[in-house]
Write a structure and sequence with these properties.
Blueprint (H helix, E strand, L loop, with lengths): L1 H29 L11 H16 L8 H24 L6 H48 L1
């Protein structure tokens, strides 16, 4: 459980950073003249929190096959996408501009989800390599 919370926090902070970048890019493309107050800084945190909840809920304690992990990740990504689009556009009127914005947000969610998973994988790989190197050094000291 402790490791799952640590992984969720790591994903949350990576997500918030990437959400800020996506909001900057989408804002410059879709609404370049719009200006905001300081309250806008809370939205990436809310979106990151919404994105961090499904992986905490949709998790199993047993070991999964690669295929099962991929299916679970796809399901999590779709759930996060639906939750965020519903949260952002839930009360908006259905028109062309809203549909374009929602499609751009959905695409951003997919790209951010994939980027978070790739970054997390690289961080885990780096930690695994360090642990392996430390273990090899420990074995050298104890065997010879």
């Amino acid at each position: 459980m402790k490791e799952r919370i640590r992984d969720s926090l790591e994903s949350f902070f990576i997500s918030v950073t990437l959400i800020n970048i996506a909001m900057l890019v989408l804002g410059m493309i879709l609404r370049p003249g719009q200006r905001f107050g300081y309250e806008v800084f809370v939205y990436p945190l809310l979106y990151g929190l919404i994105g961090a909840v499904p992986p905490l809920i949709i998790n199993v304690d047993r070991e999964l096959s690669v295929r099962q992990v991929i299916i679970r990740k796809i399901f999590q990504m779709l759930l996060i996408c639906v939750l965020l689009v519903a949260f952002i556009f839930g009360g908006s009127p259905l028109n062309r501009e809203t549909c374009i914005s929602a499609a751009c947000v959905a695409l951003s969610v997919v790209l951010i989800y994939m980027a978070v998973n790739v970054i997390s994988w690289f961080l885990d790989l780096k930690a695994a390599r360090k642990m392996t190197a430390d273990l090899m050094e420990f074995q050298k000291k104890n065997n010879g």
